[in-house]
Amino acid sequence: MMVASALGVAYYMQLAYQSATPEQYFVPFFLLFLVLFTATGIGNGSTFRTIAIVFDKEQAGPVLGWTSAVAAYGAFIIPKVLGEQIKATTPEIALYGFAAFYLVCVILNWWFYLRPGVKFRNP
Q1: Structure confidence by residue, pLDDT tens digits, 10-60
Q2: What is the CA radius of gyration of the chain?
Q3: The dihedral sign for the CA sequence 27, 28, 33, 35
């Protein structure tokens, strides 16, 4: 969902930047951004749930702390990158980059938690 919605947002932003009437693209842009935010929240929750399943009790606390620190950095860097690209009138480039990152995350999750024969099966 995150890959598809990020690509959709990028597509509609690109159309809006090239249009004399960009407001016609607001509704699909807005809806796709809502989907992206919702999927991000679900992904965040599932990440923290997975940590509690994969790591034992002694390791889960430090891993949760480290993951929270990385998540806080993401909450800083994503708006920063998107803001810089908006200033350059190319926000779709940032969103394409985010979509590529999300795709890498999907592949990593499949490899470590969803493929047949894995040690920890993510429910």
Answers
A1: 999 999 999 999 999 999 999 999 999 999 999 999 889 888 888 888 999
A2: 17
A3: positive
Distance of alpha carbon 63 from its chain centroid, rounded?
20
Tokens representing 47 are: 């990440």
Which backbone phi and psi does 31 adopt, to 5 degrees? Answer: -65, -40
Q: Cβ(113)–Cβ(27) under 8 Å?
A: no
Instruction: Give yes or no for a contact between 44 and 78, defined as CB atoms under 8 angstroms apart.
Output: no
Distance CA 60, CA 71 (A): 16
Half-sphere exposure of 21 (CA within 13 A, CB side): 1
Domain ranges in the chain are: 2-114
The DSSP call for residue 23 is G
pTM of the model: 0.84
What are the structure tokens assigned to 58, written together?
């002694």
As a residue count, the chain comes to 123
Q: Supply angle C-alpha 118, 111, 3, rounded to 5.
A: 140
Q: 31 is written with which tokens? A: 């809806």
